[in-house]
Design brief:
Layout (H helix, E strand, L loop, with lengths): L1 H24 L3 E9 L3 E7 L4 E8 L4 E9 L4 E7 L3 E8 L4 E8 L6 E9 L4
Antiparallel strand pairs: 1-2, 1-8, 2-3, 3-4, 4-5, 5-6, 6-7, 7-8
């Protein structure tokens, strides 16, 4: 009876740990899309296995690239900053259906500029 109990407990623990890892694993890869608002353009970032997010946001009007740097948690919540030459944020949610959306803001020009973004995970071949 003790062996059966230990076997069930061990199995439960392994399943619990695995499901957290798989959730983050579903987001790993390249994501891209468009943004609009005060400005408009394209964005692209990569989610690494540790949840680190790095990429760029390209302004089609002024031909400027902003760097995106942040983190993604296991629930798909993205928290990132727009840096060099920007001073702002790029945040939102990625989902398991490989879609994402959120808001962006840049305080570097005065007055601040902002808007929304949408996109999806790039398909792998």
């Amino acid at each position: 009876m003790k062996k059966l109990f230990l076997l069930l407990l061990t199995t439960f623990c392994l399943i619990s740990c695995t499901s957290d890892d798989e959730t983050l694993t579903d987001y790993i890869g390249t994501w891209s899309g468009t943004y609009e608002g005060t400005e408009k353009g394209l964005w692209k970032f990569v989610v690494a296995s540790d949840g680190k997010v790095t990429g760029t946001m390209y302004n089609q009007i002024s031909n400027v690239n902003y760097n995106i740097s942040g983190n993604l948690d296991r629930s798909g919540q993205l928290t990132a900053e727009l840096v060099i030459p920007a001073d702002g944020e790029f945040s939102g949610t990625l989902n398991l259906e490989k879609k994402g959306s959120g808001n962006w803001r840049n305080d570097s020009p005065t007055p601040s500029i902002s808007g929304s973004w949408t996109g999806e995970k790039d398909k792998t071949k």
